[in-house]
């Protein structure tokens, strides 16, 4: 029998998640202890075209290799944000060649997330036609605020590493980050633009999640 007081389901799940397979599993580079819903789908099924009848962004889509490379760059920004005392979120804006990093941004605070701050800076620096051909990379799936800001900034593509649901499972109802449970695709689908979305990206999830596991466990 456990003497633990009753916990909300999300808290119970998170504590089990953090104290169980994850600590050992990450160290062994295995995420076998993760609930199945935390495992990302293969690349081929991660892309969605929002509002198929709307105009699509120009040019080619990023390759899986380019996505992974750019997500790793975004995760380096997230790591720097964490070292600067911020939450471990990072975003970068990449040009139409899928190689040139135009802008990078780490988390600032609870109302100035990496992606929305980057999108506002990008909207001030580039015209909307240029931005339509660019790609926003985010270590974690943009929340409603950030997806909305990307929409209004007119950035045509989004690639994210870890889903918002995956993040929610790690933050729970953390007072600094009570994560929304609202997919970015749901936000974009209610708009009128053909924004293209890829994520979660299975090959990047482990290294992105590693920053968050340590962070939210240490600040509870
Ligand atoms: Zn956000």
Task: Annotate the secondary structure layout.
Blueprint (H helix, E strand, L loop, with lengths): L8 H19 L19 E3 L14 H20 L6 E5 L6 E6 L7 H12 L2 H5 L2 E6 L3 H10 L3 E6 L1 H8 L12 H6 L6 E3 L3 H17 L2
Bound molecules: zinc ion (ZN).
The site of zinc ion (ZN) has 7 residues, from helix 3 and helix 5.
Walk me through the structure:
The structure is a single chain. This protein is of the alpha/beta class. The protein has 8 helices and 6 strands. It has helices at 9-27, 64-83, 114-125, 128-132, 144-153, 164-171, 184-189, 202-218; strands at residues 47-49, 90-94, 101-106, 135-140, 157-162, 196-198. It has a 6-stranded mixed β-sheet with strand order 1-6-5-4-2-3, with helices on both faces. 40% of the residues are buried. Residues 113, 115-116, 142-143, 145-146 line the site of zinc ion.
